[in-house]
Amino acid sequence: MAPAHHDVVIIGAGIAGLRCAYQLVHEKGVKDVLVVEAQGRVGGRIMADTSFIPGMTIEVGAEFAHGANTSLTKFAEEQKWSLREIFTWAQGDGGPTDPAPDGGIGYYYLGDQKRILAFDDEDADFCKFNDAVDHLSEIEDVEAIPHNQSMMDYFKSWELSPSMMKLADAGYANTAGSNLDDISLRVTCKYERQWIDLEDEGDYRVVPTFMRIVDHFKTGITTQLNWPVQTIDYSSPDRVVITSKTGEQISCRRLVVTVPTSVFKDIEYVPCLSQTKADAVDSFGMRRAAKVLMHFTDSFWPANAHGVICSDCFLPEFWVNNTNGVGHLVENGDEQLATIYSNSSGETQYLVTGYAGSACADRLKSLDPQEIIEKFLDQLDDMFGTEEHPTPARSSFVKGKYFDWGDVEYIPPS
């Protein structure tokens, strides 16, 4: 029996695959489109949790839209989805120069000095570090930068203090999902220039969750879940045959592959991909990333804090949210707003999300989840404890949850 045949098959039901299918079906008029997905759900690294804190939707995966002039923010406005504008504390571009519209800011904790700085602190070493990051977009002859020159080399050339080098690792490398030694200075300068030229300052959460985007793009799309791909045979010019890991087959005229690079390399291609394509895939890395979710009954951080970068600490970064929402509300005519916040009854509950990428996430992998939660509580108490109240985190702690995307099948690190 011949395998079922389709005009187009898309492998991967993350946001890339779903959006591709949506455009083909709803905008290009291609009706016979099938999306196959290895997991038992759609959305990829977009996933929400509505049970951890009652009345609150929590992003377990992707959480922020960076930039006020992106396709995501424009799309949210078109669809009349509300957003929360926040202050992004991560220093991938030097950070914002002004507080968020609600007055929220980012803080920077120097673990080796037991000192916390606001984003606009005039500490000389801190200002020098921010100047170094700002200067990246001003470097003129980017093509002359050696390919092997790293961000570690760049920061060392500025003769930053040991404290600021640790902050660079926590606030720059962790955000980039890699190590300073592995991040190309050349490519970083290009991205920084692109950010200055094409984007407007601003960082947002979709209210209540990025799943609104997933739900939109899966509308009217045929998906087949729990269908991991083993082989792609494109030896015939007019028919591609796809075989699953269980031996099932489907075929199509055109195929789109939108899986993570680690999964892409796990698929067998017939004939083999060209060396140029194989090298291109190998040039992209996707490191491990994890979140530590912490439920509290009270806040114990500065009232205007949106997030904190922590050098020389157990977790290098965390941000805060609560059942009433943190950040300036951009309503965009959202008719669901009343429903979204109607479940937030009773006393305000608080969420702290710890984030670890790359090397830090690798370190967490060797620990028991409860140990991770305990160590994060210790860190928060060390940062915000006082003589009168030495353990504010433990005093208001309800529960914690550790989630490592590197452990999710078919989304492995590479």
UniProtKB/TrEMBL annotation:
<dbReference type="InterPro" id="IPR036188">
    <property type="entry name" value="FAD/NAD-bd_sf"/>
</dbReference>
<dbReference type="InterPro" id="IPR002937">
    <property type="entry name" value="Amino_oxidase"/>
</dbReference>
<dbReference type="GO" id="GO:0016491">
    <property type="term" value="F:oxidoreductase activity"/>
</dbReference>
<feature type="domain" description="Amine oxidase">
    <location>
        <begin position="15"/>
        <end position="410"/>
    </location>
</feature>
<protein>
    <recommendedName>
        <fullName>Amine oxidase domain-containing protein</fullName>
    </recommendedName>
</protein>
<dbReference type="Pfam" id="PF01593">
    <property type="entry name" value="Amino_oxidase"/>
</dbReference>
<dbReference type="InterPro" id="IPR050281">
    <property type="entry name" value="Flavin_monoamine_oxidase"/>
</dbReference>
